[in-house]
Design a protein that fits this description.
It is built from five helices and five strands. With 121 residues, it is of the alpha/beta class. It has a five-stranded parallel β-sheet, with helices on both faces. 31% of the residues are buried. One of its GO terms (biological process) is phosphorelay signal transduction system.
Length: 121
């Protein structure tokens, strides 16, 4: 079976590296992007199965990125899980049409189960 592709976009290098390591151990193919302004181009190039997207990033915030994704025909149906330490992150994620929300600091087991649930639909 082909490994599922996950893209992570977060401006925190430490979080990105930890997630990448963990998800690769879980059998996923992981692509990372620290700079949110490159994300749409990267999505078009790599065509991931799911995107883990940080909400609060400099330059282009996660909510702006998600709006662009949902308005870009080639990637509009991409499952997106919002990562955020924001108390109202879940509500924001829901309003934006994200497929899931994970609060920071996160539980790695929770992330895997959420990803697997979304990908199995």
């Amino acid at each position: 079976m082909e490994r599922r592709k996950i893209m992570i976009c977060d401006d925190d290098q430490g979080i990105v590296e930890m997630l990448e390591l963990f998800l690769e151990l879980e059998g996923f193919n992981v692509i990372c992007e620290i700079n949110s302004t490159n994300l749409i181009k990267q999505l078009m190039t790599h065509r991931p199965d799911i995107l883990l997207l940080d909400l609060w990033m400099p330059l282009l915030s996660g909510d702006q990125v998600l709006k662009i994704i949902r308005n870009t025909p080639e990637v509009k149906d991409l499952p997106v899980v919002i990562l955020s330490a924001s108390v109202d992150g879940a509500a924001i994620a829901d309003d934006l049409g994200a497929n899931g929300f994970i609060a920071k600091p996160f539980d790695l087991v929770d992330i895997t189960s959420k990803i697997n649930t979304i990908l199995s639909h």
